[in-house]
Amino acid sequence: MQAHCIHMIMKKKKSNLIALAITIIFTIIVIWNVNFGELVMLCGLMNKHYILPYMVIFAIVMLARAIRWQLLLPKVKCKLYDLYEIYMTSNLLNVFLPARAGDVFRGVYFGQRYNLSKLSMVGTVLAERILDGLSVICLLSLGIIIHYRSQFVLNLLMLAIVMFVGSFVFMLWVYKYKKVDFICEKIKNCTSKMPSELSGKICGFVDKCNPFLNLFMNGFETFADLKKMGIVAIFSAISWVGDCFMVCFLLSAFGIDSHFTISLFVVSFIALSTIIPQSSMYIGLYQGAFILAAQLFGIGKTIALSVALTQKLLMIFVYRIFTLIFVWR
């Protein structure tokens, strides 16, 4: 048992080091050849009248996401402002913690507060992320149809389709037809040709995980409810269109002539960048994705980095306000 714990700790440390290395590499790529004097000057040239409206719009977009999460939860009496504060706090934690740890906090904390299965609540968070992936597929497809075609973007779209459509279909199949036990049995059967000692350990581990996996899959209950999924889709559309509108709004604040298609690529690239392991959701890869999408439309690296940094600072400021309220309450 002690050896197993040591192995798990070492494995976790290794994954954290990989995530940190990826973050450092992309941060170096982002700041390479950037004129920091020009960067500061461009940030100062932003039209400050856009700041308050931007933060208000951002708060409304996050409210739409909190309502969507509420729809994914089982029937439980919970106040929307509680969900909203928990949602904002989890996103602030994602800024500083690796592997979207804030999302795990959201599921565990909510389950503990309302006396629900923590694993089921974490399942609803994963369900939400899969739905976000489906939304990104729609945005990226629309962007390609309207304005831009390249092999790189098409490959990115195909990767997203395989990952998120595949995940959605698989999770729906497992939940609707109660296939957790079936999958566990298949895994155990596959170990029959292994050495008996190794096979026994794997089978024992699978047996221990089985009841927890069943609880986790309860978080995908909404996937089997077409009516509720329709409402969830509406709030997903509101939140993601709102994200695109905010990107256009912020580009305008920097005096950049933009159209809605730019935001489709910016938002899609940023969302897909969070799939890659990193030590923080908003350092390195985030700015790199923003710059890459902006450069497709001839927007320079330095000005794109200025917009990306400003966007993150404003978002963190809004997260912090609601987190302070949450902590105080």
List keywords for this structure.
single chain, 329 residues, mainly alpha, 13 helices, globular, disordered N terminus
Low-confidence stretches: 1-12
Could you tell me the mean pLDDT?
A: 85
Number of strands: 0
Secondary structure tally, helices? 13
Amino- and carboxy-terminal Cα gap? 41 Å
| Percent strand | under 5%
The gist of it:
With 329 residues, this protein is an all-alpha fold.
Spell out the blueprint of helices and strands.
Layout: H1 2-31, H2 36-44, H3 51-72, H4 80-96, H5 101-113, H6 118-146, H7 151-176, H8 180-190, H9 196-217, H10 226-253, H11 260-273, H12 285-295, H13 301-328
Tell me what you see in this structure.
With 329 residues, the chain is an all-alpha fold. The chain has 13 helices and no strands. The longest helix is centred in the first third of the chain and has 30 residues. The protein is globular. The two termini are 41 Å apart.
